[in-house]
Amino acid sequence: MKFEEIITDRLILRKFTQESFDSIYSDMSQDEQLVILGLNSIEKLVEEKEKYKKGLSTHNKKFLYHQLIDKKTAAIIGWCGFHTWYTDHNRAEIGYGLFDDNYKNKGIMSEAIVSIVNYGFNNMNLERIEAFVSPNNTPSIKLLKRMKFEKEGFLKHHYFDNNKMDDSIVFALLKSEYK
């Protein structure tokens, strides 16, 4: 299987879409699935397959994300992309994460997010990129502000995490304001 990739100084960003997962789950062995998805256990693979079975895309909502691969080690170290892409409205919610704390505070996500935002505006025809962040997630808030996302509001009890409802700060970046 051939994946579209974006190359940065330290990273390879491997693109995943609904079609990628269709092919992975229908054409690859379980061992191959573990490797390509960067998973370390059958339990994690079962979790990912369950998400897939429940539906990752709908008639007007899709996702598009990239695995973050360390160029030096070829290790899958995280992800960055659009987990909620409203195709009818040319807007998407960005999300990101690093799997290994050893990669944090090294500018890895800043490097990745620049390419992902560019891809969203230039390749996906997005007019708006949104981010919903916990008020306690200071590193993410700083990252979004560095990327010129603007704070637009506050949502009470917006998502369920660790057995409790949590709030979100809403950030957005418009194509017309992006440079």
TrEMBL record:
Residues of the N-acetyltransferase domain: 11-170
This protein's UniProt keywords: Transferase
Gene3D superfamilies the UniProt entry points to: 3.40.630.30
Domain of life: Bacteria
Protein name: Ribosomal-protein-alanine N-acetyltransferase
Species of origin: Aquimarina amphilecti
Any one GO molecular-function label of the UniProt entry: acyltransferase activity, transferring groups other than amino-acyl groups
Keyword Transferase: yes
